[in-house]
Amino acid sequence: MAAQAPGLTRARRWVVWPSAALIALVITFFLSAWIGSSIPRNTRWVEPEQGIAIMVETNGVHTAIVMPLVTAQKDWRADFPTADLAAPDSPYTHVSVSWGEKEVFLNTPTWGDLKLSTAVRAAWDGEALLHVSHYVRPAPSPDHRVLIVRPEEYAQLVRAIERQVMLPANRASYPGYAAYDAFYDAPGAYNLGNTCNQWTSNILAEAGIKTGWWTPLAGGVMKWVPKPR
Question: Mean of the pLDDT values across residues 180-204?
Answer without folding.
Answer: 94
